[in-house]
Specification:
With about 400 residues, this protein is of the alpha+beta class. It is about 30% helix and about 20% strand. An eight-stranded mixed sheet has the order 5-4-6-7-11-12-3-13, sandwiched between helices. A three-stranded antiparallel sheet has the order 8-9-10, with no helix packed on it. The protein has a two-stranded antiparallel ribbon with strand order 1-2.
Length: about 400
């Protein structure tokens, strides 16, 4: 049976839970707010399926060899401005809907926590649009996807790279009608931290949250803001100033497996990889108008075919993978655990979010060092681009 001896060895994909024939596995929250499998040994029949489908225990080197990288965004400004970066997900999803297919991805529930759902039309697409910066609860989405696939329905499944591999291991065979897109990820923060943050905000504003968007572009794409809407009031803060975003971006509240991620190499098991083309202004300025530009990477023949089917709807330019997404990027390597991570979670229940932010405060010299380092990295990228 599946047994998690070290929490870094579980990414929370729920493949083990959903494949179990006796339903003896339950996903339970730990003290940090992350889901892990718990086995009812009295119901277990020792079939070992849970172990066989674990993407970490069964991680294999990809047999794929080539990837193609692009900078891209939709030519539809309305879609683009509603999206986190270049609006590519919406274009791909609509293409699958036009072919009678379904789309699976992360959506907010009634409490503004995040779960994976399957939708059947582009009228519901707004549920899946936009980044959600916390780990999605997979619920029964893997089972739902398999049901559609077995009915010969096309399915586009989107999620983090570990969720894609969890789905692939769960299915245990290739489906020609399955398309997968992983979203570039540096790590997933604890849903418990987000829930605490929302609870404190609702007390502050005196009403329940009605709408949220992590990547509002009111200040521009590069200075994206967290937006919260209440009955009579609204909150809008640049990501550098909002306490939840600061905690997340400083890696203090990430899942343990994100600090030893097995899913950041290329080529990936997904057909396509999409994400933000940060730094695009430094090496491909003609693709940057601060409305949002995406990195787009094809990992398979199916990925290339899906891209070809929508290419006329995109502004797209070929790029070098290591330039548009440097090997030093957090979406290509595991991030180092914050030195105060253990203390942060130890005091999570006792202190408010603003008080907890003291654990990520940096001395002035460190801020200057990071600013200089970023400038040097940009110079190196430009030199490489010009073959100097």
């Amino acid at each position: 049976m599946i047994e998690i001896l070290n929490k870094k060895d579980c990414c929370g994909c729920t493949a083990c839970e959903q494949v179990c024939p006796t339903n003896c596995i339950s996903m339970l929250f730990d003290d940090e707010g992350f889901l892990y499998p718990s086995v009812n040994t009295e119901m277990c029949i020792s079939c070992n399926l849970c172990v066989k489908v674990c993407p970490i225990l069964n991680k294999k080197k990809s047999k794929k060899t080539d990837v193609e990288a692009y900078a891209a965004y939709t030519d539809n400004d309305e879609i683009r401005l509603k999206s986190s970066s270049g609006g590519l997900f919406t274009i791909f999803a609509n293409q699958i809907f036009n072919q009678g297919g379904m789309v699976a991805g992360a959506a907010f529930d009634n409490e503004f926590m995040v779960e994976h759902i399957v939708i059947e039309s582009n009228e519901e697409l707004n549920k899946l649009q936009g980044s959600k910066y916390l780990q999605s609860n997979m619920k029964n989405s893997l089972k739902e996807v398999k049901t559609y696939l077995d009915q010969n329905t096309k399915v586009l499944f989107t999620g983090t790279a570990c969720q894609i591999e969890g789905l692939k291991r769960y299915l245990r065979k290739e489906y020609s009608n399955l398309y997968t897109i992983d979203v570039l990820c540096h790590g997933v923060p604890s849903p418990k931290v987000w829930k605490k943050y929302l609870s404190e905000k609702e007390l502050e504003y005196g009403s329940k949250l009605q709408q949220t968007f992590f990547r509002k572009k009111d200040f521009g794409w590069k200075r994206f803001a967290l937006s919260l809407k209440y009955k009579d009031k609204a909150y809008l803060k640049n990501h550098h100033d909002d306490p939840f975003m600061k905690l997340f971006l400083n890696e203090i509240c990430l899942r343990p497996s994100c600090h030893d991620c097995k899913f950041k190499d290329f080529p990936r098991e997904s057909d396509l990889t999409i994400g933000d083309a940060w730094g695009i202004e430094n090496h491909m300025s003609d693709m940057d108008d601060d409305k949002g530009t995406s990195v787009l990477i094809t990992n398979s023949k199916k990925g290339n075919e899906l891209l070809s089917s929508v290419r006329k709807k995109l502004v797209i330019k070929e790029a070098e993978l290591d330039v548009i997404l440097p090997a030093t990027a957090d979406s290509r390597k595991s991030v180092i655990p914050h030195k105060n991570r253990e203390l942060f979670f130890k005091e999570l229940d006792q202190k408010n979010i603003n008080q907890l932010c003291k654990y990520i405060e940096k001395p002035i010299y460190q801020k200057v060092y990071q600013k200089v380092r970023r400038k040097i990295e940009r110079i190196i990228v430009k030199l490489k681009e010009n073959d100097i």
